[in-house]
Design brief:
Layout: E1 4-8, E2 21-25, E3 38-40, E4 57-63, E5 70-72, E6 77-81, E7 84-90, E8 96-100, E9 107-110, E10 117-119, E11 122-124, E12 130-133, E13 136-138, E14 141-145, E15 149-152, E16 155-156, E17 159-164, E18 168-172, E19 176-177, E20 180-185, E21 194-198, E22 201-203, E23 206-218, E24 220-222, E25 230-241, E26 245-246, E27 248-251, E28 261-304, E29 311-322, E30 326-327, E31 330-333, E32 342-349, E33 352-354, E34 357-360, E35 363-369, E36 371-373, E37 376-379, E38 401-407, E39 417-418, E40 421-434, E41 444-458, E42 461-468, H1 471-479, E43 491-495
Parallel strand pairs: 2-4, 8-11, 9-12, 10-13, 11-14, 12-15, 14-17, 15-18, 16-19, 17-20, 18-21, 19-22, 20-23, 21-23, 22-24, 23-25, 24-26, 25-27, 25-28, 26-28, 27-28, 28-29, 29-31, 29-32, 30-33, 31-34, 32-35, 33-36, 34-37, 35-38, 36-39, 37-40, 38-40, 40-41, 41-43
Antiparallel strand pairs: 1-8, 2-9, 3-5, 4-7, 6-7, 41-42
Length: 497
């Protein structure tokens, strides 16, 4: 072996009865702290130094060592079992753990009661097969060459830089607060270096990766102020958060993969500023709160178990489902109009669309909900158009259409449509339950160049009309049901005549 390890300890614990082994495998020239303990082997030499080793049990295990071993120091014991050497002592804090001249077969393993000993500094300059420092509490700078397996416990105010030159790293960690983890491309780096990350709770902590995050599993991520924490990465495969993710998410794809974000699942509330260019196959969350501000290139499937109250911008969305309400939400679908494509293929809201806006440059597919209150849903309509004003050609930015709009439920004693506006060049199918026709003098309803099929409950009458393309045609249709435009007070169906 040719290597060295160094650990510095500056504080002593007054008393402790637990034993903490620290394991270092296949580390050649090794040094533990700056004082009192030296371990020497005939050829080569391994040195371990420690400071005030007393009271708190501490251990190092050296694997695959051959030669004679001598030890000097306070309260230090050595036991040789086969090709493993155990060095035990007592410490209360480790100032510096340094590993030098390690090889791909080297490993270091710390064993003991979790988070009992703070580690203020940790560096490794060579390759290793494993780093396991779970019992240590990271509280300072860490600079490491990535090992295939890296395991850490909790951390606070830690800055961790990990340089990766191997194809895959498996990284696990506990609770991190006010910290930063940065996975950095080494030179030379693999074509698509990958990381698998599993951690517990992140608070005001940034995870930054130049690499492809193959899987990212977290319990929760929160930030006290905007920008105080979150994920910034190249691309991500499977992203799962068991509880809340209330932090930023920024992806910057450069590897040319099909998906910038393959799938994500948030078990609690999603919030924060998200920017995900390119394609996302599937995304889901329990709820999205009003602090959620997201921009996606495209989304295949988008599902919400309960309510959505934030802002979503995407070029296109395939299938979207909301298990509760779309409340105080803004959706903006930005792909330009194309005759045979959807900007939103389907949207199903289980309960209510309320105080929300859905706008699209291109076509909208099937939109279904039970109740629509004080909301706007438009395709290819100028944002400057105010419903109720006379329509002009300039109010239509494209020939976009809405395939169908449904706002109804089996309970027809309820009001299904209030103070809202649905508009497009062509609305192919409209089904609305009861309409509350009074809206404090403010007109609401539907507008388009044509409406192919129209069914609505007006004044307790089920009105069904087809092939509407003018105000006169609509008025004539109402007359067949004994109704006039004036009978409907503020409810208006308008056309470009």
């Amino acid at each position: 072996m040719n290597g060295s390890a160094k650990i510095c300890k500056t504080r002593t614990a007054e008393s402790s009865s637990s034993h903490r082994p620290c394991v270092a495998e296949a580390l050649e020239c090794r040094r533990l702290l700056t004082n009192t303990v030296q371990v020497a082997i005939a050829t080569p030499i391994i040195s371990i130094s420690a400071h005030d080793v007393q009271n708190v049990p501490f251990g190092i295990q050296l694997h695959d060592i051959v030669g004679m071993l001598t030890v000097t120091g306070e309260n230090v014991s050595v036991q040789t079992v086969g090709n493993k050497i155990n060095l035990s002592g007592t410490v209360s804090q480790i100032d510096d753990l340094s590993l030098f001249n390690t090889i791909a077969a080297s490993s270091v393993v710390v064993k003991g009661k979790a988070n009992d000993v703070p580690l203020l500094k940790f560096e490794s300059t060579g390759r290793m097969k494993m780093i396991d420092a779970r019992p240590l509490f990271l509280n300072g700078p860490v600079s490491l060459v990535a090992a295939p397996k890296m395991m850490f416990g909790d951390a606070s105010a830690a800055t961790i830089d990990i340089s990766q030159s191997i194809p895959l790293v498996n990284f696990t960690g506990g609770n991190f607060a006010n910290s930063q983890i940065h996975f950095i491309d080494a030179d030379p780096a693999p074509a698509v270096p990958a990381i698998m990350i599993k951690m517990n709770n992140l608070t005001d902590t940034h995870v930054i990766s130049d690499e492809f995050i193959k899987s990212l599993n977290l319990n929760s991520v929160t930030q006290s102020t905007p920008g105080a924490g979150g994920i910034a990465a190249n691309t991500v495969g499977a992203f799962k958060v068991t509880s809340d993710y209330k932090a930023d998410l920024t992806l910057t794809p450069t590897f040319g993969l099909r998906y910038t974000l393959n799938t994500y699942s948030i078990g609690g509330t999603a919030s924060g500023s998200w920017n995900v260019p390119g394609a996302t196959l599937k995304g889901s969350a329990k709820t999205y709160d009003s602090g959620y501000r997201a921009t996606f290139g495209s989304l295949g499937t988008y599902s919400v178990a309960k309510d959505f109250s934030g802002s979503l911008t995407a070029g296109s969305i395939g299938t979207a489902t909301i298990g509760g309400n779309l409340n105080g939400a803004t959706w903006n679908l930005t792909n330009p109009y194309a005759a045979n494509s959807w900007n939103l293929e389907s949207l199903k809201v289980a309960n209510t669309i309320e105080n929300s806006t859905i706008t699209s440059n291109g076509n909208l597919g099937n939109i279904q909900t039970m109740f629509t209150y004080y909301s706007h849903i438009t395709a290819g309509i100028s944002p400057n158009y105010v419903f109720g004003q006379p329509l002009t050609n300039s109010d239509y930015t494209s020939y976009s259409y809405i395939k169908s709009f449904t706002s109804d439920c089996p309970s027809h004693h309820k009001i299904h449509y209030v103070g809202s506006y649905v508009g497009a060049s062509d609305i192919q199918n409209v089904l609305i339950g009861n309409v509350q026709d009074q809206n404090f003098g403010a007109p609401f309803g539907l507008a388009g160049l044509k409406i192919d099929k129209f069914s609505v409950l007006l004044n307790n009458k089920l009105v069904k009309l087809n092939s509407l393309d003018s105000r006169a045609g609509y008025a004539a249709g109402l007359q067949t049901y004994g109704l006039t435009r004036q009978d409907l007070i503020d409810f208006l169906v308008d056309f470009l005549d």
